[in-house]
Amino acid sequence: MAEILNNSGLFLALLGAAFATFMAGIGSAIGVGKAGVAAAGVLSEQPDLFGKVLIFQLLPATQGIYGLLVGFLILSNVGLLGGGAQDISLLKGSLYFAASLPIAFAGFYSAIHQSKCSVAGIGTVVKKPDQMGKALILPAMVETYAILALLISILAVNGINGIQV
Amino acid sequence: MQQDYTYAVARIRYRETKLLSDADLGSLMASKDVDSCMRLLRDKGWGNNGELTPDSLLKLEEKKLWDLTAEIIDDLSVLNFLLIPNVFHNLKVAIKCITRDIEPDGLFISNAVEDPEKIYQAVKSREYGDLPEYMRDCAKEAMTTLLQTSDGQLCDIIVDKACMDYVYALGKESDNDIIRLYCELFVASADIKIAVRCANTGKQQDFIRRALAKCDTLDIDRLCAAACESRDAVLSYLGTTEYRSAVDAITVSMSAFEKWCDDYLTSVLKPQKWEPFGIGPIVAYIIARRNEIKAVRMILSAKVNDLPDQTIKERLRDMYV
Q1: DSSP secondary structure letter of residue A49
Q2: Is B62 on the interface with A (CB under 8 A)?
Q3: Which of A29, B9, B156, B191 would suit a FRET pair with A93, their CA atoms being 20 to 30 Å apart?
Q4: Set of chain A residues whose Cβ sits within 8 Å of the Cβ of B271
Q5: Does B17 contact A at CB distance below 8 Å?
């Protein structure tokens, strides 16, 4: 029983890393896909706008990178990257899992909503190419919340590393 | 599964920039003859590289619109509410040609959701079961009525009522506000026109009742009673409905009322220019493009027939862009 509990800590930490990566990754995949569909529609009519619409398509991609970063930090802290996994208590594993939640959920939802904003921005650029800057700021605002979540996840993962539980 | 219109709307966004504006129509009006108009339209991307007559240019533009629509929308049945009137028009043509023993060459509207030839053959052989379900009963009734009474007007109202009922049903089925509004306005404006014309010509209550179709924004019983009474009674009743602002237009003429309907629809559709998702922007673009073609047709006809500009200006609709 004790052995199971000990391994559960490592399992939960790994689950946290996976959760941060795949939730934020799924959000980004949906977001980039949606913006890409709109970009393809524009390009079939106006191929010279490729450079502009590509930026809009890439905006929702960052959440996936944030999720990857948090997952990477957790794996590093529990020693899975170096090949020498530490003994992680059930409580510590649970804390790592909890630390992954902000970027997992905020990453997932912000990427999807950012893509909607990007699609609208693409529509604006088609009609008024000179308004590219303003149209780009609006979806970029959604990024704020993914960055806030990333910050909390990173601070939490680093803080947990120093706790002796 | 619900269709995703993101790609379609992105393409429509670009196409909206190519729609004619009020200023463009002003330039067309100011052109001295048809050739100048055609040159201006060619500069705006209308037509193809070949030489076209005004009529073939308008047909080509209508075809381009529906080719684009078919290209960007997987399931066109979502736009049936726009095309169904063409199907019922073809049914009327088929019935009248068969009863008069003439060929319907060039009378069918090809841009319809049902094959006109199939409708013609089904009506000719009295195999009403071969027709789509929504037109079987009315086809049989209209054919029988025309054969028994030779009353073309009665035949028309049977088919038109079936058309309005079906468009109303399509609007009710739709979960899109724009489609619902279009269908409601389609039926309500037809009802108003029927009521005013029936009042003007002193039609009997049975006839009016048979012609009017149910809709949400008009009380058909009251409209029918008013139409039996007089034109003023119809206008007085409309003054109590949400179409009170149309009363002035109806007082001027029915074409002024048709303009009011189109302008009202355009004003409701305009917010779709900023809507990035859903079928709404596509529907708005199709309606705007049809209005644009209608406006150009009026201007070209005026130039061909040397009509005064004022006559056209009174009829020109507000543009979407």
Answers
A1: G
A2: no
A3: A29
A4: none
A5: yes
| CB within 8 Å: A116 and B11 | no
CB pair distance less than 8 Å for B10 and A34: no
What whole-number distance in Å separates Cα of residue B24 and Cα of residue B262? 19
Q: Which of B3, B4, B5, B7 to mutate to test the interface with A (most CBs of A within 10 A)?
A: B7
CATH of the domain at A120: 1.20.120.610
> What is the full per-residue pLDDT of chain B (321 aa) written as tens digits?
568 899 999 999 999 999 999 899 999 998 888 999 999 999 998 988 778 889 999 999 999 999 999 999 988 889 999 999 999 999 999 999 999 889 888 889 887 788 899 999 999 999 999 999 999 999 999 999 999 998 999 999 999 999 999 999 999 999 999 999 999 999 999 999 999 999 999 999 999 999 999 999 999 999 999 999 999 999 999 999 999 999 999 998 888 888 998 899 899 899 998 899 999 999 999 999 999 999 999 999 998 888 888 888 888 888 888
Contacts of A32 in chain B (CB under 8 A): none
Subunit contact B11:A120, Cβ cutoff 8 A: no
**Rounded distance, CA B32 to CA B53, Å?**
17
Is the overall model pTM greater than 0.90, yes or no?
A: no
CA distance A5 to A1: 6
Q: Residue written as tokens 């993962």?
A: A157
The number of domains in chain A is 1
Enumerate the residues of chain A whose CB falls inside 8 A of the CB of residue B8: 41
Q: Please state the ipTM of this predicted complex.
A: 0.84
Minimum CA–CA partner of B6 in chain A: A38
Q: Are A20 and A95 in contact (CB under 8 A)?
A: no
How is residue B244 annotated by DSSP? G
Domain ranges of chain B: 6-313
* Residue range of the domain that includes A101: 2-161
Judged on CB neighbours under 10 Å (0-12, 13-18, 19+), B129 is exposed
